[in-house]
Design brief:
This protein is α/β, with parallel strands linked by helices and about 240 residues long. It has nine helices and nine strands. The chain has helices spanning about 20-30, 70, 90-100, 120-130, 145-150, 170-175, 190-200, 210-220, 230-240, and strands at about 5, 30-40, 45, 105-110, 135-140, 160-165, 180-185, 205, 225-230. A hairpin with a 5-residue loop joins strand 2 (about 30-40) and strand 3.
Length: about 240
Amino acid sequence: MINIIAHRGASSIAPENTMPAFQHAYELGVEGIETDVHLTKDSVPVLIHDERVERTTNGFGYVKDFTFQQLKQLDAGAWFSIAFSHTPIISLDEFLAWAQFKPLHLHIELKNNKINYKHLEEIVFEMVSYYRLQEQTTLSTFNCHSIKRLSMFKDDINIALLTSKQRQNLCAYTYELGARALHIKYPLLQQQLINQCQSKHIPIRVFTVNTLAHMLQCFRQKCDGIFTDFPKKAIQYRKDFYKI
């Protein structure tokens, strides 16, 4: 059965990548939570999607130019709803401490495709290892050079290539890079690609799947998981599809 993964938490009902979004997703009963990691000026991994802070906070500028304590002063919730005013940006450390004893698979995207943060892979890997969450964590990135760096830890943690671009032999390319899972944008979804990945025991998951039609297509083609902003709907649609 396809896993439902809450994209940036339950981001349709709470501000993305914040504790309320993660808590909502967990209470809904998802199998996994996806989040995004950048590095601060003082090399603290923090959970935010964009390289800059203004879309989702009341601040202005690049994440990399703030210390963690400076970021903590920003409001990461009021943009979504006044009910979430004063919701803070959180660190990866805080997130992992919250998730440590929960039956969740964590999908942590390294946001290094535009800014190549120094030592990001090692910092995140060491933190996941500290909480002993390697077996229930997948580290993903669009950056093929980062995949190669992550493959140094391949025996200890799951690595996924993220892509929205079509290419020949994508499954083989993923394996050659050192990744052992493939996360594709919905338009790339093809039964042949799913079959190729599954024959090589490479999990294939699809992002970002928000409509009933797209969810049903993923269910029919038996991919391994979907990333969605609407986990409550996805769980209900899956239940109806499989007649659970």
